[in-house]
């Protein structure tokens, strides 16, 4: 990853990708709405006032702030000399890259950290691993709670919850992950050279394995994702769908995880399809499930991307200035 700023052409390409995905997302939901009754769908959307929309956005912001606080917690555990505002700037700015395949574009945070602290990518890479694993652990825990407390089970939710928790355990157990990487290192022959820095990064995960760090991270992530699940529950109620709280939370979490497992940028397509299908199984008609899905995705995923696009230029300029200051010391 170079320290140079992305070219204008590349920035326009990334912006075009965001716009194209948003267009496909809206076009797909609009097609479903036309097929099931456009007037009914518009009527459901019309039930929402601006105060309710602000409430949904506020709950999404709660999620991002708590998870941003968790990013700061991990940065401090790693020993990075960064302040809370600095870490929040990196965390929020990275949302601009959420729509890249597998969300690999969020690795831009590593570039900003290298510019501002001088730390190489292999030293800060564990932040990405432990942040993702903490999300998986928190979401798996919430999904497990929803399975235990909801009135109706969600088909396929248990394997997804187990898979997510398993991945989280693998990444947060440095010795286990290092052994796994070492095994791959020995088996891949001429590709071995790509695993040297990966093994170095996995050893750094020991810094995050303290119970106080892992426990605090699980609470911060759990509260954050529960806030968005609660937003979905309120939205369904406002649209006239009488869904129990833990059912709504389970549907939201499962759909988000399912969308992520598809590997599609931002989980677009997979998450929406899962959400609409699960709501239908709960007896929610399409004229309600389609607008509810559109609104919750706009106020969560696309709201995060919007925040990222706003913060990104500030994060980029701050990092460039910091890199210049480091070079001139």
UniProtKB/TrEMBL annotation:
<dbReference type="InterPro" id="IPR022791">
    <property type="entry name" value="L-PG_synthase/AglD"/>
</dbReference>
<feature type="transmembrane region" description="Helical">
    <location>
        <begin position="294"/>
        <end position="315"/>
    </location>
</feature>
<keyword id="KW-1003">Cell membrane</keyword>
<feature type="transmembrane region" description="Helical">
    <location>
        <begin position="232"/>
        <end position="254"/>
    </location>
</feature>
<keyword id="KW-0812">Transmembrane</keyword>
<dbReference type="GO" id="GO:0005886">
    <property type="term" value="C:plasma membrane"/>
</dbReference>
<feature type="transmembrane region" description="Helical">
    <location>
        <begin position="160"/>
        <end position="186"/>
    </location>
</feature>
<feature type="transmembrane region" description="Helical">
    <location>
        <begin position="45"/>
        <end position="66"/>
    </location>
</feature>
<feature type="transmembrane region" description="Helical">
    <location>
        <begin position="207"/>
        <end position="226"/>
    </location>
</feature>
<keyword id="KW-0472">Membrane</keyword>
<protein>
    <submittedName>
        <fullName>Uncharacterized protein (TIRG00374 family)</fullName>
    </submittedName>
</protein>
<dbReference type="Pfam" id="PF03706">
    <property type="entry name" value="LPG_synthase_TM"/>
</dbReference>
<keyword id="KW-1133">Transmembrane helix</keyword>
